[in-house]
Amino acid sequence: MEEKLEKQRETEKREDIGQQEETERKEETEKEEKKINSQREVLEAAMLAGHILLENGAEIFRVEETMDRICGYYGVHSESAFVLSNGIFTTAGSQNEQLFAKVAHIPVKGAQLQKVAAVNQLSREIVKGKYTLDEVMEKLNQIRSMPDKPKHMQVLASGLGSASFCFLFGGSLADSAAAFVTGCLLYLYVIYVSAPHLSKIVGNIGGGALVCLLCILEATIIPGLHLNFMVIGSVMPLIPGVAFTNGIRDIADGDYIAGTVRLLDALLVFLSIAAGVGFIINLYDKLAGGMLL
Amino acid sequence: MIGELIAAALGTMAFALLFGVPAKYYPYCGLIGAAGWLVYSLLFQIGQVFSEPSAVFLATVLVILMSRLFAVRERCPVTIFLICGIFPLVPGAGIYWTAYHLVMNEVELASETGFAAVKSAVAIVLGIVFVFEIPQKFFGFARKKHIE
């Protein structure tokens, strides 16, 4: 009897130990999974930050640096990112870190520099240790859905910019007033027609043509205006300043592919504007004998 | 002259709004735009000591120095000031005249103005490339004392 009891106890003990081991093992796998999950979250957060930066006109090296910074701070050291002007390739994985790979295609959009500034500020604060990962995700989503400047403000700014540059390049005050009107109308066209519906080439040819047409109209109605200065000032809102300066800076940093693509983008827009303006001038010259030219 | 400076500042600030720059940085953008134009017109249009590309180059150098200084001071990306501040120096007029002469079949004038525009653009490129070679530490003195 006693032997039997002892045996029973022993088996019970063994089972206990087995169970303990099992729970330990479970805990370990849970820990591992948690680690993998959090690693995944870190990389997702870094990717989102990179996405916002690239989409809104940041330089390539800033995108790479920010992603490295976020990953490094949250303990993912094997991350490496390859950034082009319209895509990000990220991988991670080493002996102690899980494999992770993601590619994001990021179409070129209008620049919103406030978002670049906000992400930059966030990455500084992350390094200071102000946020948990969940808070970072939340912040990034907030930044992403930041509203653009209101449309009427954009239209007025375009008019003001046109008028200022018309004056700067030698126009009179009357020319500037006319350029203000043209600039406002041009931006209405950009917001409601060109940006949502037209390709870059056609949109900018149309924009250049529209500016030239409006200026000829104004110059015909009001005598004494200088057509040239008005057109020069009014096409300024179309000039691809972000693509041009970022392209140069990317090439200077050694990011040749992204830089070339951005410069090509800028060149294409320049040529399209010139083609639009040239087309209308030519037409006007043929039809009206170029009274104003 | 003063009118031109105001126009340069206003124009730069208008473009700052179009590119979504935070409102608190508008004054910096305006200041940079006006300073760039001041150097350009002093050297090229009024003084006539420099050729157009070298005046554009020196103006670009100033624009970028100021942009980097303000970027360090405000702890924000330099792009914000740079993209808007460079606008008055972009050879918009040159591009227009090139297109104009091209469609009017004045090939000689077209190539002349086109070449001048390209030279100015190259001057801007060189200005940007050179000033970004200066290490970031050099601008450390402009850092705002941080209050927390």
Task: Give the overall pLDDT of chain A as a whole number.
Answer: 86
Class from secondary-structure proportions of chain A: mainly alpha
Major sheet summary line of chain A: 3 strands, antiparallel
* Gyration radius of chain B, in Å: 17 Å
How is the largest sheet of chain A built, in terms of strand order?
A: 1-2-3
Structure, explained:
The complex is a heterodimer of chains A (293) and B (148). With 293 residues, chain A is mainly alpha-helical. Chain A has helices at residues 2-55, 60-73, 113-127, 133-144, 151-168, 173-197, 200-221, 227-234, 241-253, 256-288, and strands at residues 80-84, 87-92, 100-105. The N and C termini of chain A lie far apart (120 Å). Chain B has one domain. Chain B contains six helices and no strands. The mean pLDDT of chain B is 88. The interface between A and B is large, with 55 and 43 residues.
TL;DR?
The complex is a heterodimer of chains A (293) and B (148). Chain A is mainly alpha-helical.
Blueprint of the fold:
The complex is a heterodimer of chains A (293) and B (148).
Chain A: H1 2-55, H2 60-73, E1 80-84, E2 87-92, E3 100-105, H3 113-127, H4 133-144, H5 151-168, H6 173-197, H7 200-221, H8 227-234, H9 241-253, H10 256-288
Antiparallel strand pairs in A: 1-2, 2-3
Chain B: H1 2-18, H2 26-46, H3 52-74, H4 79-85, H5 92-103, H6 107-131
Helix pairs in contact in B: 1-2, 1-4, 2-3, 2-4, 3-4, 3-6, 5-6
Name its key features.
heterodimer; A: 293 residues; mainly alpha; 2 domains; 10 helices; 73% helix; rod-shaped; B: 148 residues; 6 helices
